[in-house]
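Retro notes (design track)

What went well: tokenization of the new backbones is finally stable.
What didn't: we kept losing track of which sequence belonged to which structure.
Fix going forward: every design gets posted as structure first, then sequence, in one message. First example under the new rule, 240 residues:
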């Protein structure tokens, strides 16, 4: 998961501007990226494959797919699909499926979700848990603001007009936790990151959510890929 998500108080909501995020770059679609996942000691623990493309069923939607596998098994055991609006990248819906792995204490997860607009023009998160017999459908109110999917973050950051001193705040929702949060990003500096394909100028981007601050390194040149992401639990590094 990209973030540890917490709920937000009304005071935090009021800190957000009603002005939408400014988009500076377009995603290259379709696209497929592979990331190595390592722990804090540098041990390889898995592989992540990130794909993005325009939906074949609805051209107004972009499909974002994440498929994670363990280092000792090529088969994906955690698959996340997120649908976002191609117009403004706002959250629309998605699914997640995690296979049970008793040897490493991973439990099965299977759910779908969507963002609904009520007749009173209020936004709601609707989640369907495929593994629960009692109360499988749950809804939760959301702030009446632009809402982005937590799982779309890797793609969202790439489209922003990053430069030293850049700051922005926005709201994300995580259906897994059934919570929403305020996310703030800043760009404190420019760096050169040594990758397998050469030294690459990047923006060092700090991501703040709740009390946690994480780091992403995003290439300055097109296609502005996230070359490295440290979420506090694992480090993702772009392979190709």
């Amino acid at each position: 998961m990209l973030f540890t998500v917490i709920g937000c108080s009304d005071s935090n909501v009021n800190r957000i501007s009603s002005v939408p995020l400014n988009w500076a770059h377009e995603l290259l679609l379709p696209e497929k990226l592979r990331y190595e996942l390592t722990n804090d000691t540098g041990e390889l623990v898995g592989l992540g494959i990130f794909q993005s493309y325009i939906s074949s069923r609805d051209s107004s939607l972009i499909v974002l797919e994440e498929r994670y596998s363990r280092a000792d098994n090529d088969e994906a055991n955690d698959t996340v699909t997120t649908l976002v609006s191609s117009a403004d990248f706002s959250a629309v819906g998605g699914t997640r499926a995690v296979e049970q792995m008793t040897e490493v204490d991973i439990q099965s997860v299977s759910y779908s979700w969507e963002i609904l607009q009520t007749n009173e023009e209020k936004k709601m998160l609707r989640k369907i848990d495929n593994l629960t017999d009692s109360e499988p459908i749950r809804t939760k109110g959301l702030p009446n603001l632009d809402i982005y999917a937590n799982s779309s973050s890797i793609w969202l950051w790439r489209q922003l007009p990053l430069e030293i001193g850049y700051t922005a705040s926005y709201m994300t929702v995580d259906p897994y936790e059934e919570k929403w949060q305020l996310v703030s990003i800043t760009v404190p500096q420019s760096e050169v990151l040594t990758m397998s394909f050469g030294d690459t100028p990047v923006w060092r981007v700090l991501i703040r959510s709740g009390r946690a601050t994480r780091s992403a390194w995003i290439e300055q040149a097109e296609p502005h890929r996230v070359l490295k992401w440290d979420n506090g639990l694992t480090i993702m590094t772009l392979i190709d």
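Added context from the reviewer: Helices lie at 10-14, 153-156.
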